[in-house]
Every structure is written in C-alpha cells, then in structure tokens.
Amino acid sequence: MTDNTMKNKTSCKVNSATKDHLLLCTENQSDSYIQDQSENTKHDFENDIDPDSNYYNDLEISCNYYTVEQFNSNVDIQEGLSVIHFNSRSLYKNFSSIELFLKSLKRFNVIAVSETWLDDNKMVEVNLEGYELYTTNRNKRKGGGVALYIEQTINSKIVDELSYTIDNVLECITVEIEDGLSKKIWISCVYRPPGTNMANFNEKMSEVLNTMGTNKIKIVCGDFNIDLINPTGLNQTREFINSMYGNCLCPIINKPTRITTESATLLDNIFTNRTDKEILGGLLFCDITDHLPVFAVLKNVSSKKMYTQTQGKWIRCCSSDNIDSFRRALCNQTWNEIYASTNVNEAYDAFLHRYIELYNLNCPKIKISHKKNNEKPWITKGIEKACKKKNALYRQFVREKSKEAENTYKNYKNKLVNIIRNSKKQYYHKLIEQHKLHMQETWKIINKLTKKNNKKQEYPSYFKKNDIQIRNPMLIANELNEYFANVGNKLAMEIKEPIKKLKELSIQSNKFSMFLSEVSSNEILEIVRTFQNKRSKDWNDIDMSLIKNTIEFIVEPLTHIFNMSFREGIFPNNMKIAKIIPIFKNGDRHIFTNYRPISLLSQFSKILEKLFVKRMNNFIGKFNLLHEDQYGFRAGRSTSMAIMHLVDHISSSIEKKKFTVGVFVDLQKAFDTLNHTILLSRLQKYGFRGIAYSWLESYLINRCQYVYFNNEKSDMCPVTCGVPQGSLLGPILFILYINDLCKVSDLLNCVLYADDTTLYLSGDNLEKLLSDITKELSIIKQWFDSNKLSLNQNKTKYIIFGYRKRENISELKIEDVVLERVNEIKFLGVILNHTLSWKPHITYILSKLSKSLAILHKVKYFLNTATLYILYCSFMIPYLTYCLEIWGHSYKSNTKPIFILQKKAIRIVNHSSYNQSTKQIFPKLRAIKFYDLVYLSTGIFMFKVKKQCVPAKILSLFEIKVDNYDFRGKDMFKKKVVRTNALRNSVFVQGVNMWNLLSDELKNAKSILHFKKMYKVKMFQKYLLD
Q1: How far does CA 960 lie from the centroid of its chain?
Q2: 527 touches 610 (CB < 8 A)
Q3: CB contact at 8 A, 731 and 674
Q4: N or C: where does the chain have the smaller number of CB atoms within 10 Å of the terminal CB?
Q5: Exposed (0-12), middle (13-18) or buried (19+): which is 721, by Cβ within 10 Å?
Q6: Given the DSSP bridges, would you call strands 667-668 and 790-791 parallel, antiparallel or unpaired?
Q7: For 428, how many CA atoms within 13 A lie in the half-sphere containing its CB?
Q8: What 3-state class would DSSP assign to 665?
Q9: CA distance 148 to 970
Q10: Least confident of 421-430, 444-453, 522-531
C-alpha cells in the first residue's frame, strides 16, 4: 500500500510532515517482517501498529484561522485553560498594540510572548493589568527573550531550573500552576533564534522535556523557527518532532503562522501532552508583526483560582445630563428635616442621606467591561472603518499571497498610519493644553504618549505575614488597616519616658480666647471655589468636582449645619471616617510594611475644616502665637525663606572664620505619634477655650478608618493618636504642638518647617562646639520623648560648615548613639554642602533636567511646538526656578551646563536642529534664559523685601541706604563688604547689587505681578536687540 493511501485512511488532524515521519519509522522498523506477508496481511499489520490509527485518531484537535469577531462569537474559552502566543519583535515597541488587541478578545489565562527584546530596565513598562509577569531576557546581546503572563487569580511560580538563556541555542521560561484538581501544570515559552545549530537546539530541548517529567500537564509554546510544513534539514527537523512526540507532546497548530508572497511557513506552535481532552487551536488575523498569534484552549482543564477576580468594574454615570438632573433634584429640595434637627450630627446625617440618595438616583452606578475602555480615543469612527478595510485587505493578501494584494494592503496601511498619527497629535495637543496646570494629569498623559505602562496600581495576588500567604482580599484589607491604624500608636508606646524630668517649659497663657464667628453662605461659596477639581472619592463616593458642581443648591443647608457645629462645639461623626488607599513604597510587594496609606477624607469635612482654619489663623496671627523660626504652613512664608534663614547664618559665620555645626533632625512619623492630651493642653494655653476647645476635641476623638483594597472594604479601625493625614487642620495643629521646641535649648538656634527640624550653632573652637551641642541634644531628645515624638537617631545627620581644616575631631552623639557626619544633605529640596558652593545641588538639577530633556526628545515627533513648550514649562522650569535666588548666583563655571541643557530643550521645543543658534528662538517662544531667570527670581525677592513682605528675621538682613543726595536713584540698599565666596554669592549680597541697578520704574511697580510683567518686557526687548 502506498503512503498516500495510508494518509487518506488517517483521521488524526496533525500536520502531514509529522505523519510522513511517523510512517517512515514504522516501515523501517518492520521491513523484514513485512516482506514475508501478503499484501492483505501487510495492510492489517500496519493498521495494527500505526499510532495515527490507534492512538491519535480520537484526539479532537480543531485548528482554523479567525478574525477577532469570529473568535469572540465562536470560541468558548471559559471552560478550559486558554493560552495565546505572540511573536512580538520587541514587546516594548509593540506593547500598546498587543495590549489593545488582547482587550478586543476574550480574556486568556496565559499569554506567552517570544522575541520580547527586553532588559531589566523596561520590565515595569510592559505589565498587563491583572497578570503576573515572568521573563527570561538576554544578558549581553540585544534581541530574543521570552515572557509569560499568568492571570493573578492563578497560583503560579517560576520554575528556575527551566528558565534560562543559552546563546545561539534557545531561550526558555517555565512557570508552574495548578489545575482544579491540584495537579501541576507546567507551561513553557521557548524561542529558537533563526539560523542556529539544530543539533544543539534538539539536545537542549530534550533536556528541558526530560526535566519536566511525566506526571504533569505540559504545555510548550513559542517560536521554534522550524517549519513543520516545509521542513528543511529533514533529519534534524524530524529529530525535533520525534523528541516532542517522545515526550507525549502533540502539536496543536497545523496551518502557516508566517505568510509572505514567497512563502507560507509554520514556525510558531503550541504543544501539549493533554491528549485525552478536546483541544481547540487557531490562528488570529493580526498584523502587529509578520507572525500570526496562535492560541489553544484545553477543554475541561481549569487552572486553580486562588480568588475570584471581579470582571468589569462599576462606574458612575456622571455625564452632563446626569449632573444637570442631579442639580435640578437638589434645587427642588426643601431641606426641612435638616432645619428641624436638634443637634449637628442628626442634621448632617439627614443631609448626607438625602444628598447621596439623590446622587444615586440621578447618577447611578453601572457595570462595564474592562475591554470597553477606549484606549485610543483619537481613533474616530471613520478611522475604525478604515482599520476594518485594512484588516480585510490583509486577509485578502494572506489568502492570495500575490504581490499585487501585498502592495494594495501596504499602500493603504501606510496612508492609514499617517492619518492616525495626525489624529493622535491633535488629540494630545488638546489634552495637554487642558491639563497644563495639573502635573499629575500631565504625567499620566506623557506616560501614555511614550507607551510607558502607567496603569492603575496593581497589587500582588498575595501578601505574607509570618511566612504565611494571605490571598483573600478582605483579609489583606483588614491586615493593612490594622497596620496603618496602629503604626503611630505602637511607635509612641515604644518611646520611653525620660529618666530625668525635663524642666517644664512655661507656655505663656493667652488671656484672650478664640471666638467662632458665624458662617455665611457667601463664605462657603468662596471657599469651595478655591478647591481643585479633584476626582478622588471619599467614603461616600463623592469627589470635590461633584460638590463644586452642586454647591449653589446645597449651600443653605450646609451653612445651617456648619453654624450648628460652631455653636455646639461638635465636629460631625460622619465627617471623621477616612478611606485609606494603600500605595506601594519599595522593597517586597508582598510585605504589608512596604505600603504607605493615602487618606481620603470626607469632602464636606474639608469645607468645614477650611472655615475653622481661616478663623484659627486669624487668631494665631493677631496674637503672634507661633515662633518666628517656624516657616511651615504660614502665610507669607516659604521653604526658600527657611533656607535663607539658615544660609545667612552659615555664610556669615564663614565670613567671620567660624565653624557652624548643623544638625538635621529626622522625626519618625511625627504626624502619626502626636499625643492628643498634650496637644489639647497646649491649645488651651494658647487661647483655644470653651466652644473652640470642645470643637477641636471633638475633631480629634472617635476617628476611624477603613482600607479600600481590590474593591474590598476592610472593617473599621479606631485612630487614637496623631492628626488626620490629608486634613487642612492637621498641619496647623502640629506646628502648635511643637511650637515651644525652639525654647528648649538656651544655646542652639533652630529653623523649623513643620516637622523638618534643623538645629545649629557657631563658634571658633570646634571641640567646644561639638561638646556643647552634644549636651544640648540630650535635652532636645528628652523633650521629644516627653512629647511622644520619635527621634530617629540613625537618620539624623550633621554637617560642619566652613573652609577651615579640621582633623581628629570628636564625635557628635545623642544618648551614646554616634550621629553620622556628612558633607552634603538635602534640606527642604535644596542640597547644602559644607562650603555652600552649591555644586552638589547643581549636579542634582542637571540630572533631573537631562531626564526631562529625554522625555521632550521622545515626544517631539507627536506634539507641536506650543504643546512642547507647555511640557518644557511643566517639567524643566520648576527645577530651574525652585529657590533659584539662593543657589543661582554660583560661579558661571558651575551653572553653564544648566544653560547648555536649557538651550538643547529650547531647540527640541522649536523642532530645530541640534546646532541651530538659540538667539532667535528664545524671543520667538517668549522663553527666559537661565541667567535672566536668576535675575528675575532675585528681583522678585528684593521687591518683597522692599515692600516688607518677608519675615522679620529676613527683613533685618537688609538696610535701606540713607543718602542726602539723589544721584543714583531711590530705594537703594546698603552694600556689604565681603571676604568669602559663600557670602559674596548669596542673595543677601547679589540681591542688593542687582536691586540698586534697577530703574526707578521697576522699583516702584504697583505689585509683584506688575514688577514681573515690566521686567519681562524689558528683557525680551533686549533679546531682540542682541
């Protein structure tokens, strides 16, 4: 009987090359026996031993080509284990296209990718939402690489002994999962580089298969670069097929996966040893690369789900029509129940219940599927139709395999690509223009534009506690909440009472008491207008944007409720609940302590807090309750002024040839350990008595919080110490709590910015200086302990400022703990070094500017000049201008690299060549050169000094020059005679020099805004003349 006759008898749906090989082996092995048999006997014998007829004949494998629509309509992947394989030819480059394609399909359990071309730096940018990523990357050469995405609901782990790369042989990644019966499933993705030695590959592949063993379900997929339809090097190809069958691995794909006008080859495949189940295989029409994606569904093989993943998500219908309907419903309310309430809690609860009821009625929640999200909003309906036509042309090319069909498809595709690019450019231009004042939104846009995977934060599938894995989302949420709620309390309990009682600091009692004045509707409207349109939702599912849209219809009942609160001295209980979102910090993602809480407070509580803070600040300012050295959260003060305070003292000491020792104190979770009893006692002395005291006490006590984790809400936990994170009142309470710190030491000076505490002292004798500071630090430590503030001695550092040499100096200690001495430190965002040269800070700025420059370079092809200039102002200008008046007067040899980078950025913004002159570009873009930014920042600061809009300590550093003759203009400051560069390059000297040279017109500007406008006009006029 001929081979062809035999093939026609075979019912197994495996590819013909494989069957040829199997038949050849059969004939060789039984040749001598067959010669003695009749034709009929020979036929019966071959049927008896043929594996195609007796084993593989009942293997139900179906393999076809599918469009996306056909796949979603005809393929059921819910009742089995589903696997899809892509040859990506750079996963980083094609990630967004692959992700979008996957979203158009039903959700696969396993996604295998070959030719990922990844390195360790790009791993974070190719994460798929809801999947755990495992990769094997090449170490030295580019290209290659394999990856497996496993659904996070599946218990999976990497198999290290089968995950490696062998240069010019193969690359492999293997992951173990469990099926529903706790049987292990091993899934491998393999890539064989083309043109490599087949014998070596077969040898290593055999080792991989032998290591897998026989008692597991095995799935091996990948790009093998071995054509199973048109085999070349027949012996080695057959050896590969032999090896796969020898390990009970059967190929599922039997149609070409790479089709060109010259050839149609089967290079990508999926093999499995699960031959007792129905298997559905197929290929999907997709032109992301020249390899078609292949998939397989193993029916009745289910992966073991460790928890149920919520399919889709609930969102609010908050269209303009819904909001208008909600506004009309609120407008029709009489609120009689609120006005009839006898206490503030009852009134607020009634208001909140009615508000939420109408909100749910007019803006209901609906469940949507993840894949319905419009990932590419610049794709219009017209472009969608064009994409369908392009896909139809691609399918026609695959069928016909003619040059004409290929050219038609490619020409149409190229035109479509240009249209999509232009549409994308216009879309992002409008989007960036819309969000140019909101940096967080701008970064999200840039991350999308540069294909950086900046998805909503994904949590790991399990957490670890005492080496036990916790996978239930509710249990994880409760553990996180317990940690967040008790971290401050536990830390406070660890603080021991000082052995020596610190002498009681007498806070001078304020004989005046704070009065809570009535709230008006106009005041509430004005305050709500100042809030940003944030979309973060509180525990009532309300955001500030919604309140701003409806405030005019609820302002009257809110006015009544807030006035009741101030009259009764009660902060409503339902305003004390915080919704906590866990945010990963660093380290192991499975450890609870590596997360920090983001607290979302009631939106209505923010309005009430702002009303109280306004009255509180007026009272504090009227009676000058805060210490002069505190710069945090105070009107007219900033970080730059706190830095100036310290820099002036250091530079003046260097000028006098003295040492200055600065101790930069680190307080551990200071806002969380604050003791309520101590705070309330101090507030009473400062004048917060009666109703104001009761209101503050009510604000602090009986607070609780819950953690929102993976759509699960934890149980409520009480919060017994600290001030509420994210609150408006919390920082004010904290600076009042530590207000008397500056009086603890009679010797040390201090600069405070909220909890950032810096202590310093100057002197001629360094040894005596260190000895005195050590004694004083012991007293400071006692004060911190007494007030339940945790001083972190390991992170507290000190610097010895000055030019003088020092050798064999003593150590600085706090209670026998030696403090680390450094030569530079970051203080309020600016890096100080021991000589005040500003070189470390300039180096830091250069590194940040270089990275921002790289982002501009990445997006310049997608954005026009106007949009690029917005990004330049958003990403680079803040680094250039932050505290610029302090460090910008350093030597030009230090700052010149900054100006060079700025010019590079300006060229990118203008789409100019790398060597084009920037003289005309700066005035064209209305961009200010770096050195002019220095002068502008300095001029603004000196204008504030002239108008006496700076703290008294800063103002005292400048003296108006009294001149009987008006030869050189008015409003001149006295110049200082200086010896050292530290003082010469400071704003106190350079600012005076610059100010004295300004015209009287600029000096007499009506306001800071007027000063800036006039200065810029003169500056751009100068640019045009250059």
Answers
A1: 49
A2: yes
A3: no
A4: C
A5: buried
A6: antiparallel
A7: 27
A8: strand
A9: 74
A10: 444-453
Question: Distance between CA 455 and CA 447 in Å, rounded?
Answer: 9
Could you tell me how many residues make up the chain?
Answer: 1026
Q: Who wins on pLDDT, 309 or 473? A: 473
Q: Radius of gyration over alpha carbons of the chain, in Å?
A: 36
Is-contact 996 973, C-beta < 8 A?
A: yes
Residue type (1 letter), 569:
G
Could you tell me which of 358, 356, 360, 354 has the C-alpha nearest to residue 317? 360
Q: Is the pLDDT of residue 43 over 50?
A: no
CA 266 to mean position of chain CA atoms: 41
- Segment (H or E) for 717: strand 717-719
Give the pLDDT confidence of 212-236 residue by residue, as tens digits.
877 788 999 999 999 888 766 567 7
E-only strand ranges, 560-620: 577-584, 595-600
CA 226, CA 641: separation in Å to the nearest integer?
70
d(CA 514, CA 517): 9
Side-chain half-sphere exposure of 329, counting CA atoms within 13 A: 16
The contacts found for 317-325 with CB under 8 angstroms, 24 or more apart, are 317/363, 317/364, 317/365, 317/366, 318/363, 318/546, 322/362, 322/363, 323/362, 323/363, 323/546, 323/549, 323/550, 325/362
What 3-state class would DSSP assign to 315? strand
| 223 and 267 Cβ atoms separated by less than 8 Å | yes
What is the tens place of the pLDDT at every residue in 980-1010?
999 999 999 999 999 999 998 999 999 999 9
Cα separation of the two ends of the chain: 96
For residue 297, the SS3 value is strand
Cα 634–chain centre separation: 30
* Strand order across the beta sheet in which 279-284 lies: 61-66, 279-284, 294-299, 80-87, 110-114, 146-151, 131-136
Report which residue type is found at 26: T
Mean pLDDT of 84-105: 90
| HSE-up (13 A, CA, CB side) for residue 133 | 20
Q: Can you state the angle between helices 544-568 and 521-530, rounded to 10 degrees?
A: 140
Please give the Cα distance from 1010 to 1012 (Å, whole number): 5
- Phi, psi of 350, deg, nearest 5: -65, -40
> Measured between alpha carbons, how far is residue 482 from residues 308, 467, 475, 491, 600 in Å?
24, 18, 11, 14, 17
CB neighbourhood size of 289 (10 A): 18
- For every residue of 267-283, DSSP letters joined together read -EEEEES-TTS-EEEEE
Please calculate the CA angle 574-575-576 and round it to the nearest 5 degrees: 90
Q: What is the pLDDT of residue 92?
A: 86
Residue 875, both tokens: 């990403």
Q: In which residue are the tokens 């002994």 written?
A: 161
